[in-house]
Amino acid sequence: MNYHVMTLFPQMILDGLNTSIIGRAIENRLISLEAIDIRDYSTNKHKKVDDYPYGGGAGMVMQAEPVYRSYQSIVKKLGKKPRVVFLTPQGQVFNQAIAKKLSKEEDLVFLCGHYEGIDERVLEEMVTDEISIGDYVLTGGELPAMVMIDTIARLVPGVLNNDVSAEIESFHNHLLEYPQYSRPIEWMGKKVPEVLMSGHHANVDQWRHEQSLIRTAKRRPDLLEKASLTKQDIEFLNS
Ligand code: ADE
């Protein structure tokens, strides 16, 4: 799984993803991360990559040519046209299902915009997916690209220590995760639920599943509609 991030701020991407689980996955060559500096592909002697918008208005627009030239360098290297994700608040809202689908791709290109946007013509030419990470506006696409890479990369086999944890966590079957506890048994007068220390795995699983149902019903009832619930689940929620 190779991530190629087209950006005006390559260091932000490299620094941001070089730690913890993703950093280790890069080190272990389970994934690779490359930041392509769009400025390197400017044809302007001052390395300029933006200009005023036609029709007027505030801010600057990233020009088509440097963006396209950096894209072409990736296509040339890969020998094929990869999937290109453009980060924009106008895109489809990112979720775990999209992450799962994208985690199957061998190569993914992320295009990060800045200023007031990117010349529409180059977007038409190269972008395959437009994704938003939520209904709010950031100053650029770098943080959204990092959010997406973190989410997708942890689904790549071997990136997490235990592959099961990606399966049972929040949003698996559209349910939120159950609460977790570690030592000590009592903290600030609060005790760890008895069942978790029983050593009875079936009871632990049952309790956790019920906690997931309770949490989802309370915090994100909208998700419950998408979950496939058994007859027992429905009875439990109605009890
Ligand atoms: N760029 C600016 N805001 C964004 C958002 N919410 N999602 C993706 N890209 C963005």
UniProtKB/TrEMBL annotation:
Please state the Enzyme Commission number of this protein: 2.1.1.228
Query: Highest lineage ranks of the organism?
Result: Bacteria, Bacillati, Bacillota, Clostridia, Lachnospirales
Family matches, as SUPFAM superfamilies: alpha/beta knot
Principal localization? cytoplasm
Catalysed transformations (reactions):
guanosine(37) in tRNA + S-adenosyl-L-methionine = N(1)-methylguanosine(37) in tRNA + S-adenosyl-L-homocysteine + H(+)
Which BP terms from GO are recorded? Answer: tRNA N1-guanine methylation
Q: Which domain of life is it from?
A: Bacteria
Q: Where is the tRNA methyltransferase TRMD/TRM10-type domain?
A: 1-226
Q: Which UniProt keywords apply?
A: Cytoplasm, Methyltransferase, S-adenosyl-L-methionine, Transferase, tRNA processing
| Protein family | Belongs to the RNA methyltransferase TrmD family.
Q: Where does S-adenosyl-L-methionine bind?
A: G113, I133, G134, D135, Y136, V137, L138
Q: What does this protein do?
A: Specifically methylates guanosine-37 in various tRNAs.
- This protein is called tRNA (guanine-N(1)-)-methyltransferase
Indicate where this protein resides in the cell: Cytoplasm
